[in-house]
Amino acid sequence: MKLDFSIPQRQSKLGISILFLDSVQRLLRASIGLFVVFAFNFQKYSGKLIWMGFIILALSILGTFIRYWYFTFQIDFSSKELIIQKGFLKKSRISIQLHKIQQINLNQSLLHKIFQLYEVKVDTAGSGKKEVEIKAISSAVANQLKEVIEVLNEQETSVVTETIQTETIPSKSIKIDFLTLVKTGITSKYVETFGWLFLVLNTLWENGKQIHLEDKIDTNAVERYFDYNSVLLSVITGFIFIFILIITINLVRTIVRYFNFEISKTKHSLLLSFGLFTTRKTIINPIKVQVFKISQNYFQEKLDINNIRIEQASSDENNKQKRKDRIEIPGCSEAVKKQLFDFIYNKSISNEAVYFPSIRKFWVRSIFMVLLPILSVLLGNYFTDFLIWNKLLILVLLYGIIGVFSCWRLYKNYKLMVTSQFIMVQSGFWDIDTAIIEPYKIQAITTSQLFWQKRMNIGSVYLHTAGGHISFTTGFYSEITTLCNQWLYQVETSTKKWM
């Protein structure tokens, strides 16, 4: 049954239970301090605690009724606007032009799945938060709403009805199977997970110090274990344990988040659907894609896996929110990656000119990352003798070899690639990342050259888009200025839409 979105629509009646539970948890969070005080003095405040529970229940019921009855949404087809009206004492009317809608997310939590409902979140590029949040509507209404918005963004209002009938049938569907997710989970995000694990362990250690955990540990037994003969074995065992833990965390997180990942393609957009416990459906409009990022490491290359991240326009200055709104597509084969790229850009990359950084990038990084730390440690040990010299020299030698190798690999993997249609920057040590943008979507170009770089013809360029920026540093400044002039000309003469 086709809904007439030109008249105000309410949320699903089954959604009243979701609105009620949402109101309860909001009030509980707001009054958690009072609950804690009353709970520690239960005998004294038991009566007040019961009355407080009744008050929260009554306010939740009242709030649920207001949020349901006084909340409506509709589409003004003449002005192409999504209109939200809400509020009882303080009424508000939100109008969003459909062409400014950046992203539509259809989310389904466990509670939503029980009632077969969806939460719809509509994001625009002109706001740092979700403009519209429709808490609970049926699957049919949610899908029809996103389809109408999608079509109105591309077609004239007069042909909306017949267009919907022809556009809603996906022309192609791509599924990322469970085995691919397993491969992705065991080969991705080692450094990120290690950093997160380090913070967690550090927090637990700090909390352990507060309860004097060290008094409960037999330090003599620990010292006997870490004697000279068992240090190497202990270090190897520790590394193996941490590596297994990181892989396990990555595997579980990848499967839970991206379970049953499916990409459905229509004429004007991509619909991504994924999630085990919380299902999320996200619509991508190719015109609004600002940065297309491809990531791949050695193992993933052998397994034919690419991780893709899509950045759309955002005015949000909150980096945490930006990361949350990024669209990630894990475990894409080369064929799937090509299909996605062809759909978004409708053109291929060919005849690229490659620009490499100056060799000074390697030497400067080696000085700051390898030489200076080694000199600092050796100088500190000379005055304090905190470590035996033969052991220290072995550690310094190992650090030097690894450090120089890392700096060289970072230098060799770093390059700028330019075609008439695309700008690409490749970088990375283990995970090789390639960020791709189109020149006409550039909003600003920044070049920089430090005073000591002028004589050596070295400089940097930063390309800013509505979805983020890419940079190429320590390149040859004469090449950079020539490219900047070329890109500025493309920006000024282009008539293409990017929003």
Automatic annotation (TrEMBL):
Organism: Flavobacterium chuncheonense
Domain of life per record: Bacteria
Pfam families assigned to the protein according to its UniProt record, in alphabetical order: bPH_2 (PF03703)
Name of this chain's protein: PH domain-containing protein
UniProt entry keywords in alphabetical sequence: Membrane, Transmembrane, Transmembrane helix
All residue ranges annotated as the YdbS-like PH domain in the record: 70-147, 258-343, 411-469
Entry-linked PANTHER family: UPF0699 TRANSMEMBRANE PROTEIN YDBS, UPF0699 TRANSMEMBRANE PROTEIN YDBT
Recorded coiled-coil stretches: none
Parts of the chain that traverse the membrane: 49-70, 231-252, 362-382, 388-411
